[in-house]
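Section 5.1 Outputs to date
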Amino acid sequence: MLKIAGTRHRRKLLGERLGRAQSGLTKVPSCHADWGNLAPATGSALRYWFVMPIEDLQLAAQKIAGFINTLNKLGGMRLKFRITAGDGAKDPAGLEARQIYVELGGPDTPMLTQHNGELLRALETIAAQMLRLDQREHDLVSFDAASFKAIRAQELKMQAEVAADKVIRSGVPFAFPPMNSRERRLLHMSFREIEGVETASSGEGLDRFLAVFPAGKTNLPVAAPARPRSFDRPERHGDRRDDRRDRRR
């Protein structure tokens, strides 16, 4: 099994395999998915007024299935998947305006959820770009694995409670690291249940983040947080420690 964390060679190998898998999409004449797992679109999916719906859900689902099959074949990954399109893909919690829902499983599932689901989100982003979705429309396609998003929602709720307590006690605004729109909505909803604080999103694109203020004091300045470190950072820290040990020798 290909591992994300490890040597630089493994990281380079993963990048090369992902690149081959993505470029190999043009070479896949048909999709080899189990179409018994593809739910037919029974109606228009939940949408926001500023988001254009996916015109052909069946074709879009086939493209995503082709991408995952190519990733398995050329990327050396071992993933199973089930794709649901249309009304069946709606998010029960109403946090995503998804029209296509992709559930991933298989031996390599742990790879997807490591490092805060970085690889899972990467595949989701590639799929959205492949369908030529605008950044505001990325919620139309949702990937999940091992109930990662439900678990993440609980983690964010606990983080919201801790941040709110900190802001109320100190009177100083708190900024969360940049995150996607779904997680920002999760935080906004969690803070609505907490008295004494207000929230607001700031920044643009991938740097957009959520800030927490004491109630009635959203005019207070708040510093923009740094982006979260990628999955290969822990090893680089280890590399620097090794370098320091080598210099001491």
